[in-house]
Amino acid sequence: MKWQGGRRGGNIEDRRGMSGGQKLTLGGIGGVIVLIVGLMMGGDPSQILSQMQQGSSSSAAPESYESSPEEDRLLSFADVVLVSTNDVWTGLFKAEGQTYPEPKMVIYREGTQTGGCGYGQSQFGPFYCPGDRAIYLDLGFNKELSEKYGAKGEFALAYVIAHEVGHHLQHVFGVLEKTNAMRGKVSEREYNKISVMTELQADFYAGVWAHHVKNYSNIELTYEDIVDGMRAAAAVGDDHLQEQAYGHSSPESFTHGTSEQRAYWFKKGYDTGDIRAGDTFSDPSLQ
Predict the structure, then answer these.
(1) Beta carbons of 259 and 239 less than 8 angstroms apart
(2) Residue 1 domain-assigned?
(3) For the region Disordered, what residue ranges are annotated (predicted)?
(4) CA–CA dist 4, 31 (Å, integer)
(5) pLDDT at 262 over 60
(6) 7 belongs to a structural domain
């Protein structure tokens, strides 16, 4: 993946030198998204809920913090990737006579307060908060991708960022609000299916970005990068994560989709480049 020299300035808010309060809340769709991401990363549901519901508040305060050369490189990389997603989606929206509302990205360490999704923690993995239209990323996750999940190559992190941008698109389109409104109205098993469809659509949007990136930015991708993206998608499949953690998987509890499904929908987005081809909610195989 050739990204050095790519355009920067993608609405990055760097909080690595801040220590936020720990007021944990679980409200609205934002809390649901954070919880789902935590589950995707293999977290214990009861522990995650406890952490999100407990704690005390304090104001953020600056700390002395020195970034390492590796973090500086990752920050530049995340910035370039976010700008490229903005360029792609701005171009695609413009072609339809619409304006794309760009999200921001918050870079933090360990934990930070969000704008409507409670207290985000790095153990949840990267997540999107619709309350402030922001993607939250601890740069240390890049090491986890490689060492814990076996998703190697620079494009693995690019895929993750593009996936979270996919959730931003769902927020813009009103999809997240509709899916969250179903919570409590259907059984847990049925809601898990809705969650899977939501996550697979975000994977699809990541693939659409990869398809168009060459036309809207100077990032250059090879087919090996796309394969890395498929591997990254597969690495965070529910079946793979559960088998890693427990030695078996329970399909009825899946919230993100299997490794095969995640790789398939990312690849479908890349192959078609057509945002209209990503209606996971109408796909018979996911019902």
Answers:
(1) yes
(2) no
(3) 1-20, 48-68
(4) 35
(5) yes
(6) no
Contact assessment for residue 209 and residue 278, using Cβ atoms and an 8 Å cutoff: no
For residue range 58-73, list pLDDT tens digits in order.
444 445 678 889 999 9
Range of lowest pLDDT (65-69, 93-97, 98-102, 267-271): 65-69
Question: How many domains are contained in the chain?
Answer: 1
The phi and psi torsions of 278 (rounded to 5 degrees) equal: -110, 35
Residue 45: pLDDT band with limits 50, 70, 90: very low
Which tokens is 204 given? 């699809």
Q: 176-201: per-residue pLDDT in tens?
A: 999 989 988 999 999 999 999 999 99
Sign of CA dihedral 196, 198, 204, 210: negative
- 154 part of a folded domain: yes
Residue pLDDT, tens place only, 83-97:
999 999 999 999 999
Which domain range does residue 140 map to?
A: 12-286
Instruction: Calculate the alpha carbon distances from 102 to 86, 190, 195 in Å.
Output: 6, 32, 24
Phi and psi for 170 in degrees, rounded to 5? -65, -35
Pick from 100, 108, 111, 103: which is nearest to 130 by CA?
Answer: 103
CA angle 109–116–121, rounded 5-degree value = 25
Q: How many CA atoms lie within 13 A of 83 on its CB side?
A: 18
5 lies in a domain? no
Beta strands at 119-121 and 111-113: parallel, antiparallel or unpaired = antiparallel
**Helices assigned H by DSSP within 96-218:** 141-147, 154-173, 175-181, 188-216
Give the closest residue to 1 by CA, choosing from 183, 147, 210, 205.
Answer: 210
Continuous segment of H or E residues that includes residue 129: strand 127-129
pTM comes to: 0.84
Q: How far apart are CA 129 and CA 16, in angstroms?
A: 18
Per-residue CA distances from 159 to 104, 143, 164, 206, 248 (Å) = 17, 15, 9, 6, 26
